[in-house]
Amino acid sequence: MEEDREDDRNEVLNLLSRIEGSFDRVKQRLADRFDRDDPIQILPYRGFGTPELLRIQGRVLQDEPIRPASQQDRALRNLGNIWKRLESDEVPGMAVRAAFGDWTGETVTDEEGYFRFEIRPREPLAGAGRSWHEVRFEARDPRTGAPIEATGSALVPPPGVSFGIISDVDDTIVETGVTNRLAMARTVLLRNAYTRLPFEGVAAFYQALHQGRDGDDRNPVFFVSGSPWNLYDLLAEFMRLQGIPEGPILLRDFGLSGRNLLRAETREYKLGCIRPIFDLYPELDFILIGDSGEQDPEIYRQVVREYPGRVRAIYIRNVGAGPARQAEVAALTREVWGEGIAMLLVKDTEAASVHAAENGWIRKEKLPEVREEKRKDQEAPSPAEAALSSPRSP
Q1: Does domain 164-389 bear CATH number 3.40.50?
Q2: Alpha-carbon dihedral sign for residues 133, 225, 381, 78
Q3: Confidence class of residue 37 from pLDDT cuts 50, 70 and 90?
């Protein structure tokens, strides 16, 4: 019986993979006919690494650039931009070159337009220098031979940082309503980087963790989300506008290939992002931040099992899930506490920041800043109020 179910599952996956392949071919023919003049872009994503190894990836798309968002953008324009992001015209099979110092390498984009590099500098990077290091990318437009260039960046935590931070995104730093599908759809489809709402006090708390006990630690922050890579620019711009520390943003490919569907389970996907971070920095402890809406407590419980002694604390934002879910999270919390690790179910960032200050992970002087930012965020106008009080865009 189990083998029959597995065979049925594989048949479905193969069918979906063939359907996606056919869809992509039709879309490519349409793009060749109607979008042949659209520019080809290299879109690098923030990478990370060590003085000996950098990992960085990106994507090549043939699309008109999306205009930067503004507070006056109407819902219809936001919806149109989301459609442009999700209906991306990827460029498969394109050669992309990367250069970092005297290191160079070349790879070819996959069927979804993604490329990945592992950069091993000939000499380890200087220890006390910059946290972010630029990587240059270049390709050739197959239509004209003209060069296509872009610059990405990779994070290398400086020596002496106290710990790292790994954070979820949806319903952890930005309100999406993941437990309410209609509310989530409204947020994802109709809001932009300006009108999305941060949870109160998020930026001040994450800045305090980033700065650490001494105020200049530059503790690295990593963001892991189940959102698709198509929303990368939107999330990066949102974090910049909110003053949230820059860090690698690890998203997922939502293609319909069998490979992606087999990996579609959120828990395994996120663990697949978190494990390489822990493995790359074996001397570094981490603080984990998520929400109670979906799988973050289970994921972080598994991380505690796999990396004993490496997790300092887990902060889970209570997003108001139902009684059954609350009971599940409470049971996981007791398990983690039983291993001597604080796993707190908190209503806001202020409660988490108080605990972090009590343990010496952030300066106590930062607590008033978190409280003040929380107050300002609570008093900020809603997107609807802001739209009513602002001049309408043409």
Answers
A1: yes
A2: positive
A3: confident
